[in-house]
Write a structure and sequence with these properties.
Blueprint (H helix, E strand, L loop, with lengths): L2 H10 L6 H32 L3 H4 L3 E3 L2 E3 L1 H7 L1 H12 L4 H18 L3 H19 L6 H41 L2
Antiparallel strand pairs: 1-2
Helix pairs in contact: 2-4, 2-5, 5-6, 5-7, 6-7, 6-8, 7-8
């Protein structure tokens, strides 16, 4: 492929490699996904606890042996919500967008407390590769989710624990610096 044909391919697939696209658009959308899941779930749990609202404090379902409250369900979907929000900001086609739910779940779960950083990086890469293959075959219904989920889960297994640990170290460094000079 020549430089121009690569550029044309990226333009045709709406893949824009830029600081604005990844550092502003994707990160802003990820923050909205985080708010609509983790933060809202925490708020719901707090309201239920503070005001003794049984519907909000009692489990509403059991999945895999774990009981979930309304807020707990929202919190459990943090990774998928962030990844789908990132995909939305990157203008992913539906098959890529829906496949990002699995990618976000894997990256957030494997990233531990630093999961959001893992979700950001892994979801961007998986989304862009999913966009690249979308529309290139007659069997997109199989190929697009396989590429998006396969790459996203593989990168999650490979990178998320390290990204999560790095995010925790940076957080600890910030806390240490704050203790030195509040």
């Amino acid at each position: 492929m020549t430089k121009n044909s690569v550029k044309e391919f990226l333009e045709r697939k709406n893949i824009e490699i830029s600081a604005k696209r990844y550092g502003i658009d994707a990160l802003s959308a990820m923050a909205q996904g985080l708010f609509c899941s983790l933060l809202i779930g925490t708020i719901i749990n707090t309201i239920g606890t503070q005001f003794h609202i049984g519907f909000l404090t009692n489990p509403v379902c059991t999945i895999g042996g774990a009981d979930y409250t309304v807020g707990g369900l929202a919190v459990a979907m943090t990774g998928p919500a962030m990844a789908i929000a990132i995909g939305y900001a990157l203008k992913c086609p539906p098959l890529v967008l829906f496949s990002l739910a699995t990618v976000g779940f894997a990256a957030n779960g494997l990233g531990g407390a630093g999961g959001p950083l893992a979700v950001l990086i892994v979801a961007i890469i998986a989304a862009e590769f999913g966009k690249a293959v979308c529309g290139e075959t007659r069997v997109d219904i199989l190929v697009v989710p396989l590429v998006t989920i396969g790459l996203g889960v593989a990168l999650s297994a490979w990178w998320a624990p390290g990204l999560g640990a790095a995010a925790m170290k940076i957080g600890n460094l910030i806390m240490w610096a704050t203790e030195l000079r509040p």
